[in-house]
Design a protein that fits this description.
The protein is α+β, with helices and mostly antiparallel strands and about 260 residues long. It has one domain: 4-Layer Sandwich (Deoxyribonuclease I, Chain A). About 25% of the residues lie in helices and about 25% in strands. The chain contains six helices and 14 strands. It has helices at about 20-30, 50-55, 125-145, 180-190, 195-200, 215-220; strands at about 5-15, 35-40, 60-65, 70-75, 80-85, 100-105, 105-115, 150-155, 195, 210, 220, 225-230, 235-240, 260-264. The strands form three sheets. It has a six-stranded mixed sheet with strand order 3-4-2-1-14-13. It is globular. It starts with 6 loop residues before the first strand and ends with a strand.
């Protein structure tokens, strides 16, 4: 692995359009050298994914693209990726590219881009809650497996008031509505561990800053990009963080990369 022989760094990054953000993504990969990366919101059809540029940095990659929006990928540095699935079970009519799952070494990695759900209430919010219910059902099955599991990505959920700047302004937003938060808490109640909050229970941590109203400059952010790990990994979790400086780069995504480190 890249970082050192004693730990594995896993990152998640909503790139908000991989074609437009490719220079930023490649710069970040070269700067931080994570071992495993989950990407979301590729906004590119399957054929337009920049596979060569990723592989030239030493990463193997699998991806599930979709025209104009959505799209997810898993990268692994110099490590085989054994794809398990590229769709969330439970709804054969759902054609959105929002979930991808694979083994990388001994880790089962799920990368997800959970629906935004706005405007709420409405059909999009209903779809979000239905997706979250399917996700919970799938994660229940994953908990039964005797393997270490990491589920990371853009969850589009603000779990608590301390995860958002001025929470009173978000009470009607799908990301902060009680139904969304309850669905997220159902996961942690079942045994999934919110990795960043496990290590930093009381700190202000944001992973997203809107492009408008100088949100990044004012640090008016949200924490919506999450790592959930199963109990098998609890004692292996040693570090976590947000590469928030990347949000300040020219033509950067409105999300910052988020990462954890696991002892081997």
């Amino acid at each position: 692995m890249l970082n050192n022989s004693s730990s594995t760094r896993i990152a998640t990054y909503n790139v908000n359009g991989i074609s437009a953000r490719l220079p930023v993504l490649l710069k970040w990969l070269e700067e931080t050298q994570p071992d495993i990366v989950c990407l979301q919101e590729l906004k590119a059809i399957q054929e337009n994914f920049p596979e060569k540029a990723i592989r030239d940095l030493g990463y193997n990659v699998i991806w599930h693209g979709q025209k104009s929006w959505n799209g997810v990928a898993i990268l692994a540095y110099n490590e085989e990726i054994k794809e398990i699935r590229r769709v969330l079970p439970g709804d054969p009519e759902d054609v959105h590219s929002r979930y991808i799952e694979a083994f990388v070494g001994d880790l089962l990695v799920g990368g997800l881009y959970l629906p935004n759900g706005n405007p709420a209430p409405g059909p999009k919010f209903d779809y979000k809650l239905g997706w979250m219910k399917r996700f919970e059902t799938h994660t229940n099955e994953l908990l039964k497996q005797n393997v270490p599991v990491v589920l990371c990505g853009d969850y589009n959920v603000i779990p608590t008031e301390k995860d958002v700047y001025k929470p009173e302004r978000w009470v009607d937003d799908a990301l902060f509505r009680p139904e969304s938060r309850e669905a997220f808490h159902q996961l942690t109640n079942k045994g999934w561990i919110d990795a960043l909050r496990k290590l930093y229970p009381d700190e202000t941590i944001y992973t997203f800053w809107d492009y408008f109203r100088n949100a990044y400059g004012r640090d008016a952010g949200l924490r919506i990009d999450h790592f959930l790990i199963n109990p098998m990994l609890e004692n292996r979790l040693i570090k976590a963080g947000v590469d928030r400086h990347v949000r300040g780069w020219e033509k950067s995504s409105d999300h910052a990369p988020v990462w954890i480190e696991l002892a081997k």
